[in-house]
Amino acid sequence: MPMDIIWPHLTFGNAQKPPIIFLHGFMGRGEDWRAVCEMLAGDFYCLAPDLPGHGENTKLPLDAPIIFNDLAKGVLTLLDVYALPLAALVGYSMGGRVALHTIIKHPARFRALVLESASPGLKEEKERQERLEIDGMRAKNILQNGLPSFLEKWYQAEVFASLQSRPKILDSIKTARRQNEAAWMAKIIIDLSPGQQQPLWEELPNLALPSLILAGELDEKYSLIATKTAGAVVNAQLQLIPETGHNIHTEEAGVFVKEVEVFLKRTNEVHPNFCTTQN
Questions:
Q1: Measured on CA atoms in the order 218, 221, 222, 228, is the torsion positive or negative?
Q2: What is the rounded end-to-end Cα distance, in angstroms, of the chain?
Q3: What is the CATH number of domain 9-122+198-275?
Q4: How does pLDDT run across 234-273, given as a tens digit for each residue?
Q5: Alpha carbon distance 113, 170 (integer Å)
Q6: Burial class, 224, CB count within 10 angstroms (exposed 0-12 / middle 13-18 / buried 19+)
Q7: Backbone angle region of 277, left / alpha / beta, with phi > 0 → left and psi within -120 to 50 → alpha
Q8: Taking the model in full, what pTM does it have?
Q9: What is the C-alpha R_g of the chain?
Q10: Between the CA of residue 84 and those of 15, 150, 215, 217, what are the distances in Å?
Q11: Contact 44, 170 (CB under 8 A)
Q12: Where are the domains of the chain?
């Protein structure tokens, strides 16, 4: 699938400020980052694209495969179109897997990485095959029973348990997710399944860029993954956020912004050229 065209995206702030690119999760869109980007727009130039198959980014051929190398090229195209300097890259969940793949393949284009509730992948081939089979069944469920039905089951998963005590947030998330096209979501859940992606654990010790690894303490699965990820990255900082689950930037946007802002400003103290923009 060609990724040399610029993805639909939102921008916040002044283009002369240091850039941050935000990548959303499965069934999300750039709009998911609005609250975060508006809070950061005074000090940073924030770009939040719709990943292929999501939001307004559905004009690509539905039958063409989506692969992680092409997604990485799509991120770089966004940098190139705006002639941006080295950027920070922030990714949530599925978007975190895209961000990690991109920054490992193209480290010279970035200054820092923030991963929120994201995994470097499934280590064992058996695990990947099992997950791909599960996601294949999920895709059939989407196509046969519709997206609203799928959403009800999806958000009953243990990983989203913290949202049950935040019904307004959960309802808002579901409402936004219903705007997606069922055919695209069925495709994405297979094409970008952790069962398709090669694990990146062995690459983590080679990742030298400053990295912030975030997970919500109520999300036990990803708290453990985040701890292991941070332990494998040389220049990583781990933050487990109290009283939050998988979706920190939605559950506690202010807390998320503070963590990212402090991290990036500290990164600038160590790497002062981070805030240098191109003329």
A1: positive
A2: 33
A3: 3.40.50.1820
A4: 999 999 999 999 999 999 999 999 999 999 998 876 554 4
A5: 27
A6: exposed
A7: beta
A8: 0.94
A9: 18
A10: 8, 39, 29, 35
A11: no
A12: 9-122+198-275
